[in-house]
Amino acid sequence: MNRAPLRAAGVASLVVLALVIPTYASALTSAELNCLDTIGSSGARFAERVHAALHACDEAIVVGNTCDTQQRDSVIALAASRLGKDLAAACSQVDLTHLGFPGPCTDPDGGSFSVDNLTSCLVDAGEAQMTTAEDTEFPNPHPLSKPDAKCQVGIANATQDFITSKLQARSNCLDEQAAGTISASIDCRAEVPPGTGDPQTDQAIAQAQANLAANLQQACGKTQLEHLGFPGSCSDPDGGSFSVGNLQDCLLTTLENAVDTFINFEYPPPGGPTPTPGSTATATPVVTATAQPTTTATATAQPTATLTAVRTATATTTPN
User: Fold this and answer.
1) Which helix (H) or strand (E) holds 152?
2) Would you say residue 289 lies in a domain?
3) Of 69, 101, 177, 257, which sits 20 to 30 A from 195 (CA to CA)?
């Protein structure tokens, strides 16, 4: 009897199984998968709401109004409260160490890493990363002429869309990998390009990058960016007038880092250390992306909550 085909089939099966083992110590339960998915989705919503609240304040200034810091802080505090409720509902019965926590989070209690610890960690990380992004996008909030204000608001809308899209792409990839529906060989955290190895993830991130570039060009192609305060914290490699291309490079670097840093708080990297940006994926797909129009992000004030101001700015002059 010829057993060679059976042996070959057995080896192939082992290879397939090896490729779909999740990047966790053991397969996650349905409750753990639900908790992980909630961390990703609710954490992203929190970060997006913080970013939008900061935008609303700075946008008010550039169009000649003032930043309502109490409203801004109430929006952020309410977003933090909602995050805590979501995590408590999904993760209170889950051992968070099975998901890799505390990971980069601090564990102030020194005991079991709790949902409260997780909430505090994500709130702090989300505020820190979104504030860094906002400070780069609005280097010097002050009243602007209508054309310049249009550019500044366009920057805000374009960056909000990018953050939302990339957070979703990273989270979807990591959630599917945890569930075992995509290969463990995929590097969901890899830069694009060269790519994660998952075509859907790479396409989503490439599309977000293309949209950011197109929307910045559309909003600011005829604007002297120095009027807005650029280069600000951005580098100016050309040494001359700060161009839309310079702005795109700076924002892409800043936003990519902000999103990927926050993702590592939501999904602690296996083994502890955070992967070095620019890691190479197993396979590099060819990705094409077509720019899509941006949507406007706004923050809506909510009552009762209070929070220490993230940044304070006031307008003192009238735009031209």
Assistant:
1) helix 146-179
2) no
3) 101
Asked if residue 129 is part of any domain, the answer here is yes
CA distance 238 to 255: 21
pLDDT tens for residues 179-190? 999 999 999 999
The pTM score is 0.80
What's the 3-state SS for 198-228? CHHHHHHHHHHHHHHHHHHHHHHCCCCHHHH
Tell me the residue range of the domain where 36 lies.
30-235+242-266
Positive or negative CA dihedral for 106, 172, 77, 96?
A: negative
Residue showing tokens 């550019």: 151
Question: What's the burial of 193, exposed, middle or buried (CB within 10 Å: 0-12/13-18/19+)?
Answer: middle
Residue 9 falls within a domain, yes or no?
Answer: no
Reading the block at residue 22, the tokens are 């999740």
Of the candidates 30, 46, 189, 32, the one whose C-alpha atom is nearest the C-alpha of residue 119 is 46
Phi/psi region, residue 102 (left: phi>0; alpha: psi -120 to 50; beta: rest), is alpha
**Signed CA dihedral, 246, 248, 249, 254: sign only:** positive
Number of domains in the chain: 1
Q: Is 278 contained in some domain?
A: no
Q: pLDDT digits over 41-55, tens only?
A: 999 999 999 999 999
